Amino acid sequence: MKLKEINRTALQAWSPAQQHPIYLAAGTSAQQLDATFSTSASLEIFELDLADPTLAMKSCGSVSSPHRYHKLVWGPHGIEDQSLPSGVLIAGGENGDIILYDASKIIAGDSEVIIAQSEKHTGPVRALDVNSFQTNLVASGGNESEIYIWDLNSFSSPMTPGPKTQPLEDISCVAWNRQVQHILASASPSGKASVWDLRKNDLIIKVSDHSNRMHCSGLAWNPEVATQLVLASEDDRMPVIQMWDLRFATSPLKVLESHTRGVLAIAWSEADPELLLSCGKDNRILCWNPNTAEVLYELPTSTQWCFDIQWCPRNPAVLSAAAFDGHISIYSIMGGSNDHATTLQAEQLSSSFGNIDPFGTGKMLPPLQLPQTAPSQSTVTPLKKPPKWIRRPVGASFAFGGKLVTLDNIKPAAQQPQQTAAHVVHISQVVTETDFLDRSNRLQATLTAGNFLEYCQNKTEAAQSEFEKTVWSFLKVNFEEDARGKYLELLGYKKEELALKITSALEQNCKSDEADVVEKKSPVEEEAEAPATETSDLDEVPFEDEEPVVEETSNTEVTPAPSSDAIKLKVSQDIDGLITQALLIGDYEAAVNLCLHDNRMADSIILAIAGGPELLAKTQKKYFTKTQSKISKLISAVVMKDCLDILETCDLQNWKEALAAVMTYAKPEEFSSLCGLLGSRLEAAEDAALQAQACLCYICAGTVEQLVAYWAKAQDSSSPLALQELVEKVVVLQRAVLRAQGGVSDMGALLAEKMNQYASLLASQGSLQTAISYLPTNTQQVSVQQLRDRLSRALGQQQQQPGAAGTGTLPAAVPVQTYTQPQPPQVPAQPAAPPQYYQQGRSATTVTSWSNQTPTALPSVSRPLVPAADPQVESTAPAFGLQSPVSASVPASTPFMYSQQYQRPQNGWNDPPTLNRAHKKKKIPENFTPPAPITAPIMAPLGDPQGPAGQTMQTLQSQQQGPDQPVGPATFSPIQQQPLGPPGRNPNMPQGNMEGAPGAPIGDLIKPLQSIPTEKITKKPIPEEHMVLKTTFEGLIQKCLAAASDPQTKRKLDDAHKRLEYLYDKLREQTLSPAIVGGLHNMARSIECRCYTDGLNIHTHIVSSSNFSETSAFMPVLKVVLTQANKLGV
Amino acid sequence: MSKLLKTVSVINTVDTSHEDMIHDAQMDYYGTRLATCSSDRSVKIFDVKNGGQILVADLRGHEGPVWQVAWAHPMYGNILASCSYDRKVIIWKEENGTWDKMYEYTGHDSSVNSVCWGPYDFGLFLACGSSDGAISVLTCSGDGHWDIKKINNAHTIGCNAVSWAPAVVPGSLIEQPTGQKPNYIKRFVSGGCDNLVKLWKEEDGQWKEDQKLEAHSDWVRDVGWAPSIGLPTSTIASCSRDGRVFIWTCDDPAGNTWTAKLLHKFNDAVWHVSWSITGKILAVSGGDNKVTLWKESVDGQWACISDVNKGQGAVTSITDSQQNEQ
Question: Where this protein primarily resides, as one coarse class (chain A) (predicted)?
Fold first, then answer.
């Protein structure tokens, strides 16, 4: 297609390949005149701006010239060393002159643009060529066999390639060989071509076909094959291009015949040696493959002779052609639409033609002599053969799992061209994070071996910072005996050491007491302060029982003490008297109050003890409100058995002490929440050092999610090693929690997110198997589900159904076909693989190495009411059967669809799309129950299932106890979904729902759960109203078994039989949502009436509208059974 | 040297038996199937699970060299798009184990050089860049029809590459609750023979030129929009015949200010760039038949982390796979 147009009758030269942007120089041609007969000349430079959609070319500079030109070339000399930043323009003039212009100066508008000039040639200089190896060498040809070689560095004295050829004739073309730099060819209108060797300084071969009809207008060397050149003939009697190979220089190798009149110019593409342009007096511009002599392309444009044609050296698809009609046109060889360009061209022609007429006549000349051809078609077919420059030879693309796919088009060695090229693709594993992988492997090994103590020890020793060391020490404690004691040691409290300290402190105290009793003001304060001089005030106390304190208090009591000899019962009106009176009448409370009032703390406590526990408690409370010493809080906490207050109010600088107090005094069931609370407080602190300590608290608490949340906030975990660091801690802590509690800890949203990141990082390094083992199993997060699916498919873990891979029958395809019959023949979004194929893969992948290694201890914990847990199910279920055509026509591409499909991943992309499903619903048989009754889970059984039901029941039970019972059903049981977001820890209600802290002694709360193995839980009977389900399904399996012939099917059915036990379990526990149960009953009814396709249909609906985890254990099985039943026609 | 071999090791070599130059090879979403296309006009699909190579399909339908193949996301089934010098785009689909033409697009006037599927979250749609300078966006409307939007004269003399912006909006580290997806504007990047990198976005159902990125001094051969890694930066790589590879980044949420950083200036033309799935590594394929891997360091500099020397890779592959088997 035409790209640009310049209104000039001129010779043209493209800027060299090195030059950017691309320029085109146009010099007034000496051979053409227009109606003005003006002989003034100019040299003008235009810029090729392809970003500009118009046909106009921007003129960048021009110089007027006394000479008109016969030849114009643009060489790169000087670009490299920037002496001539845009290279040199070399012009051949009428009178034997060669002029060198500095192109950059023309562009800059400089007036001194001529570098050098020579008039050495006789006659016009029609031939010029720049050596492509030594760009300072230029060959020129004039009349009388004159050929000169010019060195642009010393322009004044040219060389000759050898003695002049005889007879003397004009030189029409010169060309340097493209492969061998010292070889030059020249040609003359007589049709003879000569090849010169500059090293020998002589003519080495003459090329001529002796027809005497060749009239050489063009000469070009093959850019790739050193011995080949083409000659073009201007003679109308012989309008051909001859291809010669100097190895057989007796006759042309190929003759390119298609022009009907003489060829005026040729140009051989440097970018693709299979493209040769020619233009002729027949107005055609052809593009040849010179090797096959085939015309690949004809430019659809020309209405005039073109006398010059040039490939753009830099942009290989671009060429320019100068025509006698006064235009230089620039084309793309790649075809394309001309629509916009032609309209623009028309506008431009009408508006501005006169202004840019170089000759200033203002008149538009009629076409030279030829009639206008019909306007060309707007679209232009491209080259028959793709040009080399769009044939991509290389390519490396990444794929999932850190794989890199690279092309290798191995070329046959030059010596053995007969050997065919091999075309192979390499698939490589790219591993960039070796350190990360090393550590990941180490962690993996630890997880397998279970030697966490050693692992933590190593981590502690290798820790880079003190803080890291502490964190790992804390983690390690989780795997040791007496975790709390160890924690305390880590916090700096060793019982033995402390005991020693206290003993010495007491001795000192006693002495000092004796010495300066008088000085004491407040005995309680004194008591508190004395030990504080040694260490921090909290340090001492926690490990002491209350007794010493109390004892000392009484010992050092300095209030006017009652005399030791005898009790004097004073009944006076002073305080003592009142107390005595109160005591005498047995009113302990009053006495205590009096004592308190009088600040006789010890008295009051002693009296309170006598007064009974109630009074004691009251007194304690009053005491604590009255005394405000530093440690009173602690004492209060200890005495009242309530650490909460301390934790909530303590100075965070004393977090260690607070944590130690929790270690010592907290009840097992509140331990975790208290640690967590302290952690949250620390995390909220402004001091960064304190914030960091929060994670220690979380480790003690065993709250993985909080630890992750803190870590994610405080540390950058985006780098692989940082993420590894986090995961190491989290995984170890998780294991600790597991150890302590024995249950599967839920993964919160944030942790799941991090684990997802970790898994995808592992995947990117090729560790797919490891990656999948870290993915949380119990999350509904879309990204996690997607990654799991991707990983398991990449590992080839999905269970291949027969036929799913592409051969044989597709069981699931049968119903699909049935239901798409009334549809337009094809629904494009419809997946190829049968739904069950996908789902099986899903269920299989939930068996990760984690859940395998860790028996799930809480499989029988009943789920919360399903509708409450998953409102989505509830909201969509009623739509079943009532789905309006409107919603059915929602295109699969809308975001709405997306969210639906990914909310419930069982409705995966291999399932029939909703669109399809919605249509199917119309065909649901009359006996299908609309959704309203489903809200009641009790369905009236159809038919009379009693007899056979009992029987199947028995068979089933006997099978249950058989050795074939599937191991680890817990893997398939839905795990309670944790609400998204970090769970808020409410310290006021720590019971039950808290995770057991690793450090907490295993309390009564946990033990029973651990000790009861799953198998021993006695199964409840299936509710009577649901027995029909079991009977129907079992009956169907039996029927299928009877009908099935091949062992594979039988095996499948047997397996299905066993796996349906999960369904029955759920029925027993009544944990299925009413919608699902209702659907199952509908399925059962379809089975009763042998409408298996309807059954499958209902099946699809249930799967699509229910929670994946709820149904994944049995729905695929049902599908298998139904499909088989349908296939076997039972 | 040992370090280099450690970084990239050939684990499988697939002899495609193509009769002419291979131009593209792409793995599917799971990395278990390989699609290749060649100047011999065919597209082949291989099952390459576990280091094997099983020819699954040999797709004939193009009448010229096939330049690129692209896998659609599997949620739409097994779908592959191919584009060719014959001006056609063919969308192939596997139904019941056999591959067939699903759709053939003939709306271009010249070689179609690049095809790229858009983010699956927003439907099944494909961008095609052609030597006729136009870019087409084909969208499957769900009833078997394809809606076509064409950008004429996107790149004068030809568009060489197209690549979609990821669906995840930069900066949204954590998945939005479903139903509240941020309003995604469809955007893609293209590179062409006008030396330009252009960004396009859809507004009111129309495609508009959003940005024009100028830095290359020759044809832009390939562009690659990096997968989002949750950071608030959009990243695009572009490579050119001028030997330069640029990394374009944009931190501004409106997507208006793009800055270019030169990754490297190669001695030869650069044909292809490919981001790793996690968007951290860039594979650069040059005309000298060399593949290099690049990674951004912490200080924002791009460093070559490996030369993938294919010949040597092939040699080591034998020992590597043997070691794996043992």
Answer: membrane
